[in-house]
Design a protein that fits this description.
With 216 residues, the protein is mainly α. It has 8 helices and no strands. Helix 2 (20-27) runs antiparallel to helix 3 and helix 6 crosses helix 7.
């Protein structure tokens, strides 16, 4: 975050560009901009395939609607409000998504423990037996999720996302001024910690739920 605040945000706003790829055209050429934008579009197409498929499967299980029909409906609705409302519609939709996502996650944190079979001792034993409470792994092993992999890989991936990814850069460029852009980035960074803890906790609880069922 300090690097993005110090170098990226002021530079983007000073140039007056509408995307990170517009900067590439000014700095290099239209060809570089086109190739970079094309690679980004391909990445987003692959990402959206997963993002749309997973909720479509969930909707199909809950409502009985065909998965393909769910995908078509979600795609049509998304295209409709994006074209009609522009970037403002996208931003407000993300606000609603965050509220729904966190509300669902907090509800899961309440409901999953209530569904766990066995006493608290059995749950704790299961968690400890599979090293689910181990926070740090300082081994110099770059083939697993050790502390060093998370730090180096996380720094690199987040610098790419928060410095160059258009889905994030457009948020800096739609704010009234630089201070507001920096404030929004800081707020997002501080909210990352509790949200990460919540979803990791859900993962651990689901693991316990599955392990205890198999143990019966």
């Amino acid at each position: 975050m300090p690097l993005v605040v110090r170098f990226f945000i002021p530079y983007y706003r000073k140039l007056g560009v509408t995307s990170s790829y517009e900067y590439l055209e000014k700095r290099f050429s239209y060809t570089v901009r086109s190739v970079s934008a094309g690679m980004y579009i391909l990445l987003q197409l692959g990402r959206m395939g997963i993002v749309i498929l997973l909720p479509a499967i969930a909707l199909s299980v809950v409502t009985g609607i065909d998965v393909k029909l769910s995908i078509i409906l979600m795609g049509a609705v998304s295209l409709f409000y994006t074209v009609l409302g522009g970037i403002e519609a996208v931003i407000w939709t993300e606000v609603v998504q965050v509220i729904i996502l966190l509300a669902g996650a907090l509800l899961a944190l309440i409901l999953i423990p209530l569904s766990l079979t066995g006493d608290s001792g059995a749950v704790l034993q299961t968690v400890q037996g599979y090293d689910k409470l181990k926070l740090f792994d300082f081994r110099f092993d770059f083939t697993s999720a050790t502390f060093w992999v998370v730090i180096i890989g996380g720094f690199t991936l987040n610098l790419i996302q928060y410095g160059c990814d258009q889905t994030v850069v457009q948020r800096y460029l739609t704010t009234p001024d630089e201070k507001t852009a920096v404030r929004s980035l800081k707020l997002g960074a501080w909210l990352t910690l509790p949200s990460t803890i919540i979803f990791f906790a859900i993962g651990t609880l689901l693991f316990c739920f599955t392990a205890l069922i198999r143990a019966r």
